[in-house]
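Collaborator request log, item 7. Partner lab (contact: R.S.) asked for a structural prediction of Pyruvate formate-lyase-activating enzyme to inform their binding assays.
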Amino acid sequence: MSVVTPHDAGAPVIELAVPLVGGSHRRASAGTAGLEVSAADRSTRFAQMRAGELGSLHSWELVTAVDGPGTRMTAFLAGCPLRCLYCHNPDTLEMRHGEPVTAVELLARLARYRTIFEVTGGGLTLSGGEPLMQPAFVRRVLRGAKELGIHTAIDTSGYLGAHCSDEMLDDVDLVLLDVKSGDPETYRRVTGHELAPTLDFGRRLAARGTETWIRFVLVPGLTDDEGNVDAVAEYVATLGSVSRVEILPFHQMGRDKWESLGMRYELGQTQPPSPELVERVRGQFRARGLTVH
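Returned to partner:
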């Protein structure tokens, strides 16, 4: 994959020869360099967060062919309700671990890359963590991005889809929806929560005609059961707005973060899926007429 490298010392950039997998399966580590952190007092920050003027940001970066089409500014927001066993950004789980950044500041940085976005067909992706933990902030940033004429995407588990208003979705061009399992018991084991909200959100996106990319993390011994994969594929096939399915092979790139945070990592002995397993799973989705990557 080719990469456009901005000549901007303030922009963290990842250059890729092979695309990394995205969302909760990709490490967020660039930090908030180049963004002014709010110095407001605690009570003022809370008021600004309620109004959507201020968000808790873990990091941001410019990257190509990972979090949607083209070169994108991906902002990793802090906070997530799920506790996925394979999470590669456990340092984004708590909102208090993020930096306070205003929507105005984030949008000013975004505006600097409009030419790059126009050339590559890229834009803004709000990821996490779980961006829908901060719906007021996300709504304000998305509206600002659309006013700048920039393509927008959110990378979400869909678990908090009820937080995503129709008004917010009007400003979303693409949803990267992580469907972690098609079996409720497996989903609970993976995330600690129930599957239904994700399925409901996917159906809502389909009813609106919102373009959706599905992401499925393939973990041997956890999500690779044929019946589980079939359940995901059958569900996705019912959603008429899905233009792409990404099978994301599990890896151990985030293990050191768990250890540095003193958190127990249950998948320490789990190996990445074999090429044969990855192809089997891709075949299960292709058998439903889906475009698979």
